[in-house]
Amino acid sequence: MGKRKPFGRKGNKGNKGGAWKKPRTEHQATDKEAGFGEWVYENASFEKYYKAQNIVLEEEWEAFVKHLAMPLPTTFRINNSCAYAEKIQERIASDFKFEDLVIDGEKVDPISQMQWYPDGKGFQWSVERRKIKKLEILSEFQKWLVNLSDAGDITRQEAVSMIPPLVLGVESHHKVLDMCAAPGSKTSQLLESLHADESKTGKLPTGLVVANDIDIKRAYMLVHQTKRVGSPALVITCHEAQKFPLLSSTDNKQGFFDRILCDAPCSGDGTMRKNPLIWQKWHVKNGLSLHPLQLSIAKHGTSLLKIGGRMCYSTCTFNPIENEAVVAELLRWSNGALKLVDVSEVLPRLKRRAGISTWTVMDHDLNEVAGFDADAEEKRGQYKKLLPTMFPPTKEEAESFYLERCMRCLPHDENTGGFFICLLEKVAPTPDDAVAETDSKSSNKKSKSTGEEYLDFKDYDDIKTSYKMKDEFEASQLFTRSDTGKSVTFVTSSVSKELLPAMKALNMKVVYAGIKMFERHDLGVGASGMYRLTQTGSHIAKPFMQTRKLEVCNRDFQYMLERRGDLLQFDVFTDKLKDIFISSPLGSYVCTLARDDGVPLTTPEQMLLNLVVWRGRNTVNVMTSKPDGLALAATLKALNLYDEALGAEIAALKQSKKDKAQTEEKKSNDKPDSNEE
Ligand SMILES: C[S@@+](CC[C@H](N)C(=O)[O-])C[C@H]1O[C@@H](n2cnc3c(N)ncnc32)[C@H](O)[C@@H]1O
User: Fold this and answer.
1) How do residues 118-172 score in pLDDT, each as one tens digit?
2) What is the 212 CA–ligand 1 centroid distance (Å)?
């Protein structure tokens, strides 16, 4: 062990021990920025422990630790819901390949598609994220990435973290539970899969996603993260996953969910590349202490699963105690009710390692322990006790468990972080199902519920009249939050008819649900309704609305979009729209683009190219948030409907207004106060 030269660079030779010290000169400034000070890429315990496990061959050890000490490449994926994925792929190929880029005197590889990611929608670049942010030559690319990300078209996510939702295979009719969901990058992916058909069929999914986390602050991170997807099929909850109330399905079969993601809390040594502090903190006890929790969460997950349903168990640690040992015990305990699914055909181009059936258990002092001995464990004391479930399966068990069907991603295979993933199918009731059936009411009472109650919305007549809603619109899909009743939430019928009643029956609270479709507004005299339509709800409400829908030409659409936030006089619009606004009553309108070339909009375009405006007494105000505005502008550009000259004209107009306001402000600041003596 000792100090190393920078790997991946000239002079990187002779790494025999497998420990890496961060090259001070190159990373000093960034380390300080990150607040970590100097850190060392070595940990003798880590080395001893993992050399004794069965997961990295001796001849690979050097490559393994070398990659663990390298910064992670930048990775991002085009979201499943993005209607113009090819345009993004084309833009990267034409403008952002960076084929001859030199950074710090070294040529860097161009951005490449991750070969294993479906449909060429995953990208990887060896330049780390913080460098992209800092380098002037990459500023246009950085801006482009941020805009696409704000618009919900791409997600910057670690490559291996993209795998569990892909393995889980969510379809639009599935009821999905994400047991430990925050901060939520996988929840977003699950939602994207749930909504994947919507852009083709125009129909909302019949399934749903419940995203849960034990920590209320982190549950609110989920609210933020999933906002970009804007799903009426999402409910966020805050429970201990191992006590998540046993919802019953309407057909009274055990288990409510078709798919469960159990992305368990873990010691996280697969994330060392992102979080180098783990090098210092790594200790064998971290994994040992988490094993019982992981097992109880995963076991409980199987009780929440329907027969025929599937659960993906994943962690971001290499540790067999937190991975295969948990899975082996699930299989042992289930007595044949759970089976590991062979996922070798899923993501066939992804390099992965098969799960293992033998591993080495070590105590807190890193002594190998050959087998479970209850008496010896008693003597060890409460906090150092090893459990029988931590030990590898017997030979006979191993033959029936097929632990090789689990997969482990190692950093030197695809230049990623480390990850463990497996897929379990429930083929019969699990042992706890029977207990759950008799005990569900009392155990549910014990589970603390954090959040709010969602109440039936009572004012639908007002909305029905204002927007002349068709009878087919289900008012029962509208809810208000218990606090103010100001905001009106829309959820899919699976949420309103199945999930929320089942949750209510168990006194479960909701942290967040669905999308905001209307908000109460004091319209004053002359207004025709109390409820203002929101941009997020507009594409769902519009097909049911028989009034307050306008078709606008390219120019007016772009004009409104780019002057978002300004109060627009009627005469800034083309004559046709100006006359419409003058003769229309106050209130919300959905303006849909009617292309000047007469080409009808496709289903995804119809869903996207709407702008909600507020027609006030003398002005029109565009009610679109910045991310939604960016998404719309990006769509116009992708469809070649964006007029650059108009864009420049509006930018100049905005700048001149800003300059004028600044001059006025300066003048008033310079003016002597009349009261001054
Ligand atoms: C590995 S992270 C999950 C990452 C997440 N799936 C994602 O992709 O963004 C583990 C999460 O589990 C949560 N957690 C820890 N213990 C839990 C428990 N007993 N029940 C539910 N969530 C728990 C933590 O708050 C943390 O947010």
Assistant:
1) 999 999 998 887 778 778 888 888 888 888 888 888 999 999 999 999 999 999 9
2) 8
Strands 361-362 and 368-369: antiparallel
Q: How far is the CA of 95 from the centre of ligand 1 (A)?
A: 38
The Cα 469–Cα 481 span in angstroms is: 22
197 is in an annotated binding site: no
- Complex ipTM: 0.99
For the domain 159-354+402-446, what is the CATH code?
Answer: 3.40.50.150
User: Which carries the bigger pLDDT value, residue 122 or residue 95?
Assistant: 122
Ligand 1 binding pocket mutation candidate from 158, 163, 177, 180 (most atoms within 8 A of CB): 180
Instruction: Give the C-alpha separation, 495 to 210, whole Å.
Output: 10
Q: Where are the alpha helices (DSSP H) in 468-593?
A: 493-494, 500-505, 535-541, 554-562, 575-583
Q: What are the residues whose beta carbons fall under 8 Å from the beta carbon of 481, sequence distance 6 or more?
A: 452, 454, 455, 487, 489
**Rounded distance from Cα 182 to ligand 1 centre (Å):** 6
Largest CA distance in the chain: 97
Question: Of all atoms in ligand 1, which is nearest to the CA of residue 184?
Answer: 9
Pocket flag, ligand 1, residue 189 (CB < 6 Å): no
- 191/111 Cα distance (integer angstroms): 27
Q: 238, 312, 316, 406: which one is catalytic?
A: 316
Antiparallel, parallel or unpaired: β 175-178 and 257-263: parallel
Q: What is the three-state SS of 202-225?
A: CCCCCCEEEEECCCHHHHHHHHHH
Tokens representing residue 503 in the block: 């949750």
CB 524 within 8 A of CB 250: no
Q: What are the residue boundaries of the structural domains of the chain, listed by start?
A: 74-156, 159-354+402-446, 548-653
- Structure tokens given for 74: 């930048």
Atom of ligand 1 nearest to the CA of 261: 6
CB 338, CB 427: distance < 8 Å: yes
